[in-house]
């Protein structure tokens, strides 16, 4: 069974259009949802959570749609954004009380285990928490429920590298039993390379590609050379490139490697390289 299925999803508002999004995320895997600001990532997540009403299309979480039953649907989903969603004057006691009221599957003892594991202070107000502590509080609130699908919208933004790695470890532990999945939206592409199984790249509300992460990295090449090497034929084959007085750098599909001169330097691209060249296109 798929953890998440989206079919022919469309939404138009405020001059923006999400166009015919289709994806399947099997249970037990992490999907990286990548694109620049305004590409449609947050809109998609809000549609999955039914915070926005779709114009058309189907969204199912473990085979259930929102229309099949709001309580069951919402209880399967956990959401973490780049800001803590609890009031800043709350203490952990207030958080526990709120979660008890809203979610039938909330387990207070499990929450306390995570709070103690991550040294979250019980008496301090959330406004006194560090950024890293707020993120861990969000995870404690999610992991102490019977969630099956995590929706993450820039959760590692602004975190130091140590805490970011801790978050990535939490995600790997979450899917370890093969029954849960994660949709991870972020602009920190190094995180995507480390942890995702699948990548969905969205730009201007449309799918650019959706594939296994390893396939995405292996199916592209970074090409570097002098301006004389940037022929018309090569330009046509490049997905994107940038040139200066010192030469050029571009991205090409590895299927077109026969069009690369032996004089050119060829490297394996980073996820950053791939995303940037797809977005920026061809620039002289």
UniProtKB/TrEMBL annotation:
GO molecular-function terms, A-Z: ATP binding; ATP hydrolysis activity
Keyword line: ATP-binding, Nucleotide-binding, Transport
Transmembrane portions of the chain: none
Keyword ATP-binding belongs to the record: yes
InterPro entries: AAA+_ATPase (IPR003593), ABC_transporter-like_ATP-bd (IPR003439), ABC_transporter-like_CS (IPR017871), ABC_Transporter_VariousFunc (IPR051782), P-loop_NTPase (IPR027417)
Superkingdom per UniProt: Bacteria
Protein name: ABC transporter ATP-binding protein
Source species taxonomy: Bacteria, Bacillati, Bacillota, Clostridia, Eubacteriales
């Amino acid at each position: 069974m798929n953890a998440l299925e989206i079919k022919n999803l469309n939404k138009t508002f405020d001059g923006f259009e999400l166009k015919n999004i289709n994806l399947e995320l099997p249970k037990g895997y992490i999907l990286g949802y990548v694109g620049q600001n305004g590409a449609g990532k947050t809109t998609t997540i809000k549609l999955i959570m039914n915070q926005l009403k779709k114009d058309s299309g189907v969204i199912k979480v473990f085979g259930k749609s929102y229309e099949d039953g709001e309580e069951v649907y919402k209880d399967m989903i956990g959401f973490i954004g780049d800001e803590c969603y609890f009031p800043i004057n709350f203490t952990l006691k207030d958080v526990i009380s709120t979660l008890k009221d809203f979610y039938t599957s909330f387990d207070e003892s499990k929450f306390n285990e995570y709070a103690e594991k991550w040294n979250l202070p019980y008496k301090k107000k959330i406004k006194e928490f560090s950024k890293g502590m707020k993120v861990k509080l969000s995870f404690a609130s999610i992991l102490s429920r019977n969630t099956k699908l995590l929706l993450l919208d820039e959760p590692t933004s602004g975190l130091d590298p140590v805490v970011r790695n801790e978050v990535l470890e939490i995600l790997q532990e979450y899917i370890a039993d093969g029954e849960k999945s994660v949709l991870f939206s972020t602009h920190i592409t190094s995180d995507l390379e480390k942890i995702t199984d699948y990548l969905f790249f969205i730009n201007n509300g449309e799918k650019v590609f959706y594939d296994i992460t390893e396939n995405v990295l292996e199916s592209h090449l970074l090409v570097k050379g002098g301006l004389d090497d940037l022929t018309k034929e090569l330009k046509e084959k490049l997905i994107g490139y940038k040139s200066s007085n010192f030469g050029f750098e571009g991205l090409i599909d590895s299927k077109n490697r026969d069009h690369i001169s032996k004089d050119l330097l060829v490297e394996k691209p980073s996820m950053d390289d791939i995303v940037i060249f797809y977005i920026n296109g061809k620039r002289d």
